[in-house]
Amino acid sequence: MKIAFFGDSLTEGFPGVSYFSLIKKKFPESEFFNFGKGGDTVISLLKRIESINLPTKFDFAFLWIGVNDVFVKVSRLYPFLKKLRRQPWAKNQDVFTSHYEILIDFLAAKADWLLTVPPVFIGEDLDNPWNKELEALSTVIKELSFLQENCEFIDLRKIFTEKLAGQSPLPYVPRSFPQVIKDTLTLKTSKTVDRVSIERGFQLTLDGVHLNQVGANLTAGVFAEVIEEKKKIPLPSG
To answer: Which of 41, 51, 64, 66 has the alpha carbon at shortest distance from 114?
Structure first.
């Protein structure tokens, strides 16, 4: 099988623990492609993949994007950094919707099965304003996914939320860009990521966004189950 993943730093695999490395171990005979890039938004991801020569058609393609379109609002520094990196973000839900629709149409033609995944967290406090915005984007992604016959919405956000049920939410969000860079450069192993995650009081993430070992294993497990399930289903006609 040829299995591709399109997204941001969560897919690229750092900072934090890489779900991509974990899922590769579950399908050792398959060919994997990682098209994740740190900081990507729905707009910059679309522009990037339209400009590269993608390999031949994939059996499975996972699309996990959107958190940076909201994360940019967490700090006054982030919009400036986004402009420097040429990663424009969706200024409102209508802009997000229009670009995501083009993105999903483009990738649905490149894969037998396209699996869409909503942005999960910005901080593990689900009641903060950024997570409310992500919830709205999740609804947009779900609705657009229904329009493609070979596309399915994987509600990883709901699965993560259920895992946090009964836990005391931590209000921390990664406002400091230098701290994110420090985490990327210094936390090289799952063990060190988990140590810092525990020190900060997180359950599924390193910093409220990027995955710790529990979050990465959960993600890889969910994605692997979807692949195994879809392998048994006849491809959509046409």
So the answer is: 64
